[in-house]
Write a structure and sequence with these properties.
Layout lengths: L1 E2 L2 E2 L4 E7 L4 E8 L8 H14 L9 E4 L6 H10 L2 E4 L4 H4 L10 H10 L1
Parallel strand pairs: 5-6
Antiparallel strand pairs: 1-2, 3-4
Amino acid sequence: MKTSIGVIQGYSGLAMVDDKHQVIVHGEAFGEGQEQYLLQPMVEVTRKMLSSIGVDDFCKIKLLADAGFHTAKTAKYVFEEGLDAYMADRNFRKRDPKFKDRDRYKTRARKERKSR
């Protein structure tokens, strides 16, 4: 995994959570540095697990994912599967007026990082 101090061995821990009852319905650790391609395997395993306990209408469930999961391939997958998915794209802050000062601290942060 890429970090501010270089590359280290690490894992991405992901969880699928039922928001109504605050229960983790599936969790898994992946040896991947980025989560972009991990939504599909998480959805598939969660769907199988829920099907085993009698929940067959997985397409009616709302799926929320952060911008780290957004790729064209992932968007195509959720569309083809008919999932009610909400996923921010990586450039949403560039369009949102609330984040107009987003680059304000970049220079300072880079200088601080460089001095370490």
